[in-house]
Amino acid sequence: MKLIRLALPVYVELLTAVVAVSLIDTLWVSGLGSTAVAAVTIATTTEHLALGVILALTTGTTVLVGRREGESPLTPVIRTAWVLWALFGFVVAVPGVLFREPLARLFTGDAATVALVSDFFLVSLSAIPVFFAQTLVDGIFKGLGDTATPMRTALLCNVLVIGLDPLLIYGFDLGVRGAALATVLARLVTLAVAATLLVRRLSRERPPRAHRMVNRADGVDLLRTGLPMSGDFLARSLTGMAMTGLVGAHGVPVLAGYGIGLKIMLAGTMAFYALRQAAMIRTARGGGAAAGTSLRLGLAAGVLTALILNMCAVPAAALFTDDAAVAGATVWFLRCMSLYLVPFGGLIAMGGALQASGRGGRLLTATLAGFAVQLPLAALLSSSSLGVTGLWLAMAAGAALSLALTMTLTRRPTG
């Protein structure tokens, strides 16, 4: 199936991007002690939130390029996207660097950790435009129907980080700042390669001079198209932070198990997001990837992921910890997630088709409604005899409600 062929490279790209940003850096700085690990965890989590900002632009660019290729010149929309990239990069990077220490203190009160996080932020937030640029280049490629090139450049970035991390962290004795610098340098090289390939790809298009200008209407269209996806991402990130606070009330072993379980579960949930992007690309390019088809594939992926996690829960937990209490919390979390993963898979996968067909606002409405139920329900159930299990049940209830509302809202005619 064409949708699955499009999704497979996206899946590899998403997995490698997650590994490059967090796991590789965390692995290499682990030799510097727990404070360094905590600092890198905080810094990379913050950068993950920044991704939600640029998604409004990159998603809109993918959809508009997909709609217009072969129909009208791509130069105006791509130039407009780059102007917005410069604006987004400035708005995030400058305040981030200037207020890096207060930002670090939002996550920890430990002075040593704050200092290390601030060091990481000085490098990583200064170079956030590079991260945004690579994301935009990937979005343009995807709009052109090419998901293989972003996968290859993501793999290149990983290889570079793996080589540069030990050199800069230990060889040049830069510590945590070396981890940030390694990621930035890897992204710079990757961006140079990706941008060169993109220029060659676009060089076939020779629009008349009238089409070489930046178009304000394109800017509005880009943001209007991409904002629902950005809102969805940011809402999920903020809800995840709130859930972490609720989980933490049940003790350190449960919180550690939750953190490990989420990392393990990423391997499965990235498949849902790969299907979402593939459906968005197909729909934007007129491929007819209906929301119903995406929904069925997402539900099937959710069932498969739930089955695999149940079978592999015990050995997977053992890879991350030898603490019996933490391992037990991880295994129970993964088993309870069976109720969550099936509706979540369907919801995420069908979102791409809705986004590309102009119905992203309805998806965002349903998502926010699900979270509005999930959080108070989580607080209520977790304070009952259900304990931490109540939190996992609330997650499943929120995902099921969001899916049901999305299916109901999308039956209504557009406009």
From TrEMBL:
Subcellular location: Cell membrane
Primary location class: membrane
Coiled-coil annotated spans: none
Keyword Cell division on entry: no
KW Cytoplasm (keyword) present: no
InterPro entries: MATE_fam, MATE_MdtK, MdtK-like
Entry membrane topology: Multi-pass membrane protein
Transmembrane segments: 7-28, 48-65, 77-99, 111-132, 153-172, 178-199, 233-252, 258-276, 297-320, 332-351, 363-383, 389-409
Keywords, ordered alphabetically: Antiport, Cell membrane, Ion transport, Membrane, Transmembrane, Transmembrane helix, Transport
Functional note: Multidrug efflux pump.
Family: Belongs to the multi antimicrobial extrusion (MATE) (TC 2.A.66.1) family.
Annotated PANTHER family: FMN_FAD EXPORTER YEEO-RELATED, MULTIDRUG RESISTANCE PROTEIN NORM-RELATED
Protein name from the UniProt record: Probable multidrug resistance protein NorM
Organism the protein comes from: Microtetraspora malaysiensis
